[in-house]
Amino acid sequence: MAKKILIIGACGQIGTELSLKLREMHGNDAVVASDIREGDAELMQSGPFEIADATDAKLIESLIDKYEINEVYLMAAMLSATAEKAPMKAWSLNMDSLFHILNMAKAKKIEKVFWPSSIAVFGPSTPKENTPQSTIMEPTTVYGISKQTGERWCEYFHKKYGVDVRSIRYPGIISYKTLPGGGTTDYAIEIFHEALKKGSYTSFLDKDTALPMMFMDDAIKATVDIMEAPAGDIKVRSSYNLSAMSFTPESLAAEIRKHIPDFSIDYAPDFRQEIADTWPSSIDDSRAREDWGWEHNFDIEKLTTEMLEGIKAHAV
Ligand SMILES: NC(=O)c1ccc[n+]([C@@H]2O[C@H](COP(=O)([O-])OP(=O)(O)OC[C@H]3O[C@@H](n4cnc5c(N)ncnc54)[C@H](O)[C@@H]3O)[C@@H](O)[C@H]2O)c1
Known about the structure:
alpha/beta; binds nicotinamide-adenine-dinucleotide; Rossmann fold; 14 strands; 6-stranded parallel β-sheet
């Protein structure tokens, strides 16, 4: 059967580029974008779009019927920094939306589901360096608790009901086409914009805070790859560790200085420092590499060049 895809939360940082990539791969009409708000012009004009709230099960089901959807990418969520300001709202959005989709897959209304998890599933008791796939997970943020719980339910629905749900623990995703949605790694995007605009940046994370990061193209590639892989290759049905690079604000600033020699950075850590301190500084993603052939393309050097050139080109 031909693919008919619904993306929920399509206007966000990842959803926008994911929708465009899937439209390029499967045809514009095969990919229905949806969100509670309108997105950028390219997304809105390139294919079908519906305003839809991910927590409204009836409405989502009616879209699945209307467009004969067989694959859902559930990207809507409240992210780490924003969720700390509205814990109960974040919990409802992040959990209810997932249950609706898992139940529709259980009822065989859809065949395949992508649901993203995050490095936020880890906590202060997790080994920080080269964090293993299976390890201690005691997240301390609302966002992390919701993602860890979501992972358990994904695995449960797969084991109990045969639901084909696939998931990745994204690290901090860095891109220039769409603005980030309120995460703890957003500094690594803001820094490029400010470097080009002002030649300086005040980081909300301290200079030696190492976090796992990934350029958007790699994140999209991983998402497409895991969804295209034969079902039998997907052996982890909670969520896969995924990694490309790790860096600190200080090492990213040094990389930017290779392009903008006068660039200066100072540090004013805020509440996001506390969140970052509980997360891994690097990730062991060997299971993703072994099971479905994950390979990344972007390191810190390539990322820096792409970001600076991309922002300059995008601004005109
Ligand atoms: N960006 C990252 O660095 C990162 C890292 C780890 C995991 N993730 C996960 O990837 C997914 C996408 O992240 P993102 O960075 O694109 O987030 P984002 O905040 O940029 O986008 C989320 C989108 O969901 C929409 N949305 C919010 N509430 C909704 C609702 N009730 N119904 C429908 N849509 C709604 C928003 O309008 C927004 O367009 C999320 O699940 C996030 O937790 C992202």
